[in-house]
Amino acid sequence: MLCTHNTMIISTVDDTRSSPSFSSLPPELLIEIFSTCSLTGDWHIPLTLSKVCCLWRDLIISSPSIWQMIVILDSRRTISSIHAQAELWIARSSPLPFNVVLKLTNFERLLPIMSCFLPNLARWMRCTITYDGRTIETSLSDLTLSSPRRILHHLDIILKTPFEDVAGDNEDDIIFFPCGSTTYRHISMKVATTKLPHAEMVNPLLFTSLNISETTFEYSTRSPDLLRFLAYCPNLEHLYFHGLTSDEGILDAPPPVIALPRLHTLLLDEICNQRSILSHLYLPTLRELYLRHINVDYALAPYHVSEEGDSDDEAYDFSQSPHSDLYTGMGIRKLLLRSRPPLEILDMDLSDMRTKDFRWVFDKLPDLKQFSIVGSDMSDSVVALFMPFAVGGDGQDGERMSVRLPQLSVLKMYSCQQVSGDALVKTLSARVHYTDHATPNATLATVVISSCNNFTASHAQELSWDLQDRLHVS
Fold first, then answer.
1. What is the pLDDT of residues 382-395, one digit of tens each?
2. For residue 451, is it within any domain?
3. Which of 73, 150, 257, 461 could form a disulfide with 185 if both were Cys (CB 3.0 to 4.6 A apart)?
């Protein structure tokens, strides 16, 4: 009996010694096993396995392949904790490429989460986003592997409920990363969200172009929210904001002043908060300003502070949009005062100013080369601002002459029904007579007058004597 018992003990010991432990497996095999485990979808697996023993911990931390799958679950997690996870996985997977899996419960958190990965596009291979039973998959491999030059080019934000059908939208294109040319990989991103993120946005968005479009009044954005978001876009060169002409009401406090030092093109379309936006931007390199469909024929909420220039227009010119005229003019005034930009193009389509604002603005734009205006209530008093004027004499040669907008070469006027043909002929003829001789390299080269009812065929013929083929009338 004793002999039998001892035999059993010896047999057991021999079996234990003959079966190698899991830790004695070759490191290459352990890494392969751990890498496979990391693909199961549980984001914390690498961290859990690293707590088993020192050997596993050292092996996992030193093996980039185990960290290549970055799974983000945003349920009940703070953005800061998600950012910390993303930064850890990105660092430990280096220099290998990585894949991202986002399992979202709140689509508004998409952009703040994605901002963690955008600075590492060179290594980002695939992105899978799951939300509300839908899955969106995007391959970035052609963007990250085939070109040495990758530029975060364009971000398109549509303010609406994600996956809600809006005319002209493709539900499959809620988010995508299209590629530009083979020489430059201009990477673009499109996102649908109900509001602009700001407080949770930690990583800067380094896109050079941004388009924001409102689709419903329910999700319209107020100027403070827009400006705070722009603070996370320091590399912007082009900014386009398409609104829905929704009055944002009286602001509780002044919005922050946001500097966009590289921005050279700004378009504001169909909005009522143009004064607040323009007054709180610092754009020292702005060259093109486009204002579209800003005129409204109803009263707007009072601005939060009274500023110099808010007084009535002494010209008392006719206008069908006096409130928006005031806000547009005052916004441009503040923008020019703060930024002193080298503005070259000012395009105003159904966007107007008071006569006093036109005069003030024209006096502050020495670099303007093109001025276009559509559907304006501007009067002959504004047209007269293009006329040469005396700036004083030197005692010998009499009065010295000058012109506003001394670099202006293109003037376009469409559907300006309050302007008289006589005023246009008198002013533009006088201007070209002066600039053709005084500043031949900076004179009107193109003048377009279209659908201005008070400008008749006889006016066109009279003006053509001085402008010749530079005049285009329709």
1. 999 999 999 875 54
2. yes
3. 150
